[in-house]
Amino acid sequence: MKTAVRPEHRPSPAAERAEAPQKRNDRGLLGRLRRLRKWNMPAGVASVLWLVVVGLPLYVLVLTTLRDRDSYFDEGALSLPGDLTLDNYRTVLESDFLTYLLNTAVVTVATAAIVIVLSVGIGYTVVRTLSRTSQRIFQFFLLGLAIPAQAVIIPIYLLITEMRLYDSLLAIILPVSAFCLPVCVLILSSTMRDIEEEMYESMALEGASQTRVLFQLVVPLSRGGISTVGVYAALQAWNNFLFPLILTQSRESRVLTLGLYDYVGQFRVDIPALLAAVVLSIVPIFVVYLFARRQLINGLMGAGGR
Predict the structure, then answer these.
(1) 275 within 8 A of 64, measured Cβ to Cβ
(2) CA–CA distances in Å: residue 229 to residues 60, 248, 282, 295
(3) Which helix (H) or strand (E) holds 49?
(4) Residue 162, CB-side half-sphere exposure with 13 Å CA sphere
(5) How far apart are the first and last CA of the chain?
(6) Residue 221 CB burial class (10 angstroms; 0-12, 13-18, ≥19)
(7) Where does the chain cross the membrane (predicted)?
(8) Can you tell me the distance from the alpha carbon of 191 to that of 186, in angstroms, rounded to the nearest whole number?
(9) Which residues contact 93 (CB under 8 A, 6 or more apart)?
(10) Which of 245 and 12 is assigned the larger pLDDT?
């Protein structure tokens, strides 16, 4: 005897459609509650504090450049100025600022070019030559990471003087390039080691010379590391202060880091004009860093590879 099976009670399609928005709302509410539970309160507070620490100096820097010198000393740095003015920027541009900017640009571009060319050649030699000599050369370059520029400034001064390069832009370019090479060789050698050995072997089977392998295989596949090296060398050259201070003297060879002293006198300091010069000197290298920051970070993170 067969017993009748009662069919399960199912809601009508209209009832399912009515309950669907309520279920979605419940799921959305539960999702928001879960996200709130995962939110790290100490990290949020620390982020806000860090934003204040970073944002307050930028606020003072930009706002001070838009006020005159008297109102800055009378009202204070954090007060809102009554009248905004661009006279500080006009004062800076009417001085020798453009000459300093051009000298800094020449030093930066030349340093980046020298560092890229030398570090690509040295890195390729270190990676593809398995002899002890190449490894000793690599270790020799890494020793430069432990030598501060301040410790060897007197020998550098004597060398530059003997080479009759004192008070020239080349006197800045050569030492800055030399101190950039250890880091740049480390970055590029790590990048080139990531290239598969099969690619080198296939190029060798085709009868390619070392020069062809370098320019047709290694350089295209190492563009990220080369970009990192270029940006790093450019930042070091743009912001360098020690070598221009010691190795140059005349205004014709002065760069931006020394040109800021024009607004500092023995008995007075024109702080709004000084900060206006700082803002104008930051803009070019900040734009370069803005477009290349990802390559710079990725290249530095990859420097600890194989």
Answers:
(1) yes
(2) 33, 26, 20, 9
(3) helix 41-64
(4) 6
(5) 78
(6) middle
(7) 39-62, 100-126, 138-160, 172-192, 213-235, 271-292
(8) 9
(9) 280
(10) 245
Integer Cα distance of 234 and 111 in angstroms: 7
Q: Among residues of the chain, what percentage have pLDDT more than 90?
A: 21
Tell me the C-alpha distance between 107 and 47, whole Å.
Answer: 37
Helix boundaries (H) for 94-196: 97-128, 132-143, 153-162, 170-193
Chain-centre distance for alpha carbon 142: 21
Torsion of CA 243, 247, 250, 251, to 10 degrees: -10
How far, in Å, CA of 281 to CA of 277, rounded? 6
Enumerate helices (H) and strands (E) in the chain, giving the number of each: 15, 0
Q: Is the dihedral of CA 192, 196, 201, 203 positive or negative?
A: negative
Largest CA distance in the chain: 116
User: What are the pLDDT digits (tens) for 145-185?
Assistant: 888 888 899 999 999 999 999 999 999 999 999 999 999 98
Helix/strand/coil for 196: coil
Three-state DSSP class for 255? coil
For residues 61-71, average pLDDT: 82
Instruction: Tell me where in the chain the CATH 1.10.3720.10 domain(s) lie.
Output: 96-304
Given the candidates 2.120.10.30, 3.40.1790.10, 1.10.3720.10, 3.40.50.300, the CATH classification of the domain at 96-304 is 1.10.3720.10
Which tokens belong to 230? Answer: 């270029």
CA distances from 195 to 98, 124, 201, 217 (A): 43, 11, 11, 9
Please count the residues of the chain. 306
